[in-house]
Predict the 3D structure of the following.
Amino acid sequence: MAGRNAVKKSKPLYAALDLGTNSCRMLIAEPDGTRFHVVDAFSKSVRLGLDLERTGALSRAGINRTMQALHVCSHKLRKLGVENTRLVATEACRRATNGEQFMRRIRSETGLELEIIDPSEEARLAVVSCAPLLEPQAEQVMVVDIGGGSTELVWIDLSAVAPENRRRAMIGLRPGSNDIALPDGARVVDWISVPLGVATLMQRFSDVQEDGAKFALMSCYFEESLEDFTPYQDLVHADVIDKLQIIGTSGTVTTLGSMHLGLRRYDRTKVDGLRMRAQDVDDVVERFLDLGPEGRRAEPGIGRDRAELIMSGSAILQTLLRIWPTEYLRVADRGLREGMLFSMMDADGVWDNHGKG
């Protein structure tokens, strides 16, 4: 028994923390073949950016909720002795006038060194996390990451990459100074970080009372924000659209997937990797509208924490599926944490003897 425990402990532990506009989430994992095994996980709704759209700053209440969550994360990291870490903050801390001041407080009170990453790095990590869900026959892929404060879209051309190497090419993304670099003949056609996520888009139209009108306004406003995204102009009518795969990652996408399956209780094993047609998404959104605000809050498949945000997220996703018609959407219950873990392990060469397919 002691020998087996010693072998288990010899595996290096990696930790990835994502502090977003709504949630603080952390994964601690160890390499396992060509994937990783989760040793511990933490997720807490902190609503850090609740008043950001109105005030431009992180609120005292949001900061206090977040500090409580980060103390828990710090304790877990110390308890397990994790040395390989990457801890990041995203849109809320990027935009807030007191974002850097908050980072200093975190460092002083918890010992955690969080970095505020730029939009290109956030987009890169989203792509890396979704690589295992890529279909080998897909020549074009658009990864959609709907966050609390921003939405990242990355369109990648994989047509020059052999099908068996396409997932590896996505995992092998490396950060650039102001761009995203892909190896092995893959090409980033375009990417964009729209400063509208489920929280910021909802807050922008918080004064609109009628549910259907608010949803329509959010959809139109988000579509207008995509005008500078190159594929919007150049690829929507091109033949490549027939070989396009869209992968969506966010609480919005997974909630839509769970509701489509009729799950009363969320089950990641059934949702992660799920294929949904655009019509399936439309049907679920129609159900959300029929329920109304009170009905959505009472719906177990949505939950009270997400009930306020699900319609803004649905407006974003439905808009994208209308602009870029595709056979189906692949649902990803994964995000920046998984992207960071894959990137750290890949950089350390832990899969060199296994491959990364």
